[in-house]
Design brief:
By secondary structure, the protein is of the alpha/beta class. It has 2 domains: 8-253, 3-Layer(aba) Sandwich (Aspartate Aminotransferase, domain 2); 256-373, Aspartate Aminotransferase, domain 1. The protein has 14 helices and 12 strands. The chain has helices at 8-14, 39-47, 61-73, 85-97, 111-120, 136-142, 165-174, 187-190, 224-237, 243-253, 256-276, 294-301, 320-326, 361-373, and strands at 78-82, 102-106, 127-131, 147-153, 178-182, 200-204, 218-222, 280-284, 309-314, 331-332, 342-345, 351-355. The strands form 2 sheets. Strands 1-7-6-5-4-2-3 form a 7-stranded mixed β-sheet, sandwiched between helices. The protein has a 5-stranded mixed β-sheet with strand order 8-9-12-11-10, covered by helices on one side. The relative contact order is 0.12. Bound molecules: pyridoxal-5'-phosphate (PLP). Pyridoxal-5'-phosphate binds next to helix 4. Pyridoxal-5'-phosphate (PLP) is lined by residues 84-86, 110, 113, 153, 157, 182, 184, 204, 206, 216, 218.
Length: 376
């Protein structure tokens, strides 16, 4: 673990990398390659291309500045930035699973992660067992000698279930496997999985970290040989982030704590409103005292903020389209973690998912209230 003693807000703002001209904002090093002073510097670079400037598919100073910040906020010795969240997930799992690896994966995953594990990784010679990770006995029973890692989201998408990360870590480490957490929903503001014993943490930085719905980006933080393996595979797959997108994530990250706090406060009020409305049959939000995993969520987050994501099911699924169409402030779009509030229709036939943005909360509450009225 990294021992940066500074507060999270300071770490979010100050990771801007070194640059010779002292620019306060991180410069974008828009270049494919870097000049070599002489043969000695060429040879140094070939020996250690991650450290010395060489080629931007391998490393780039803007990307390095982002990775320094990511390592600091995830409490990791090292971080890598990718062209998307899926680039981080696919590169990491491919690196960990090579030559016949077995994975245990949560049965509640973002659809593309699930498809990667179901259809693609087996084509690369890996095996995958999906498990309901709220059932720790089922987890225990799923390990095999070849199990390399347990992969799950905290909180889960779209039902916002909370998994008992500390117990999962302890069981997994008893089996000498790694814990890989997709922390996209929670962000490092709510909790930092590496501080709870996880080995690798992934974020789709397209969401809260970049925060403005403009760029695709992904992150991975952790330590040890697993990070070396992922870094060298990223170099060959070419899944590194572009310098421009790295700069956008650095800019977004600097306001992450403010945005997550605001979105969390609003999401709790939205969840309370949805729970009290007769159109909903269930509201999924880990910060509602009625949520099945409320105690667990408080333990993980410290009980102050629970994130900006919530979802709800309607009593009458046939009214889902009417409710979806009735929103005027929430933008009907996929993705989440944007400054703009979003409503998305997920796979489940009676469920809608909301991502609270940073607009005036009363406008969002009134929009949700009117949309739910359209269910009757
Ligand atoms: C939990 C989670 N992980 C990963 C991803 C993939 O991220 P990206 O769209 O940046 O590839 C998503 C995308 O929605 C997601 O919801």
């Amino acid at each position: 673990m990294n021992h940066d003693e500074r507060g999270l807000a300071t770490r979010l703002v100050h990771g801007r990398g070194a640059n010779p001209l002292g620019a306060v904002a991180t410069p974008v090093f828009d270049t494919a390659s870097f000049a070599m002073a002489d043969m000695a510097s060429h040879e140094r670079t070939v020996r250690d291309p991650m450290v010395h400037g060489y080629y931007s598919r391998v490393q780039n100073p803007t990307v390095a500045a982002l990775e320094e910040t990511l390592a600091s906020i995830d409490s990791a010795p090292r971080a890598l930035a990718f062209s998307s969240g899926m680039a981080a997930i696919t590169t990491a799992l491919l690196a960990l699973g090579r030559r016949g690896g077995h994975f245990i994966a949560s049965d509640q995953l973002f659809v593309n992660s699930r498809e990667w594990l179901t259809h693609d990784l087996p084509d690369f010679g890996c095996e995958v067992t999906f498990v309901d990770l709220t059932d720790l006995a089922a987890l225990e029973a799923a390990f095999r000698p070849a199990t390399r890692a347990v992969f799950f989201e905290e909180f889960t998408n779209p039902r916002l279930d909370v998994l008992d990360m500390e117990s999962i870590v302890s069981i997994t480490h008893d089996h000498d496997a790694l814990v890989v957490v997709d922390n996209t929903f929670a962000t490092p503001v709510l909790f930092r999985p590496l501080e709870l014993g996880a080995d690798l943490v992934i974020h789709s930085a397209t969401k809260y970290l970049a925060g403005h719905g403009r760029v695709l980006a992904g992150t991975l933080a952790g330590s040890g040989p697993a990070m070396d393996a992922v870094a060298s595979l990223r170099r060959r797959l070419g899944t590194i982030i572009t310098p421009h997108n790295a700069a956008a994530v650095i800019e977004g990250i600097s306001t992450l704590e403010l945005r997550v706090a605001r979105a969390s406060d609003t999401a709790l009020r939205l969840a309370e409103l949805a729970e009290a409305h007769e159109a909903t049959s269930v509201v999924h939000y880990p910060g509602l005292p009625s949520a099945p995993a409320y105690e667990l969520a408080c333990r993980l987050t410290g009980g102050r903020h629970f994130g900006g994501m919530l979802s709800f099911a309607l009593h009458e699924p046939e009214r889902k389209a009417a409710v979806y169409d009735a929103f005027t402030q929430f933008v009907r779009a996929t993705s989440f973690g944007d400054v703009v509030s979003l409503v998305d229709s997920v796979d489940d036939p009676d469920v809608l998912r909301l991502s609270a943005g940073i607009e005036s909360p009363d406008d969002l509450l009134s929009d949700l209230s009117k949309a739910l009225d359209a269910a009757s």
